[in-house]
Amino acid sequence: MKNRNGEKYFRIINAATKVFARKGFFHAKVSDIAREAQVADGTIYLYFNNKDDILISLFEEQMKAVLENMIEQIAAEKDAVKKIEKFALTHLKLIELNKNMAEIIQVELRQSGKFMKEYKNEKFLQYLNLIQTLSKTARNQGIFRKDIIPDIAKRAFFGALDEMSRFWVLSSYKKYDIETAAKQISEYFLRGLVANPDGSTKRPGL
Hints:
mainly alpha
């Protein structure tokens, strides 16, 4: 078992975040990370097996913090609709708060074959299941339609947020801010895109 804590472990994690964001996962070398962390190359292998292992550990540490923060944020809201809206805003706000990490999650992780094919992403599944729980609760309370399948809803909602996050990371020009994007996605999810048949501006459903 590798040592997964301690000052040097987190120093390497922080260094890897900078190196992967700057050079990209494919072009980054373990020696680059060691230099950034100001440790010997061999020290890296006391904590990690290889570059993929560093990337996955980096993601796990980030997801742990993101999950804890999201639970705290949505717990502050009592209304199911407000919880969904808060989830969207909190998720997209992460891009502004940590641009290096956002780029790694949206771009670099997808270049790791080990991550995409072999890694069992438990923290991410817990994150998705927060959406599923919110959807199920809202359905049981009669706020959402009874035919909603929470397992599909969570992936649809996250998919929209994930695509917007990737756009935000890759695009150099943005026509709107994070708050607007979060509000729009929440509206699409909560109310749909179809206007009332009578053409009125009053929204159906909620």
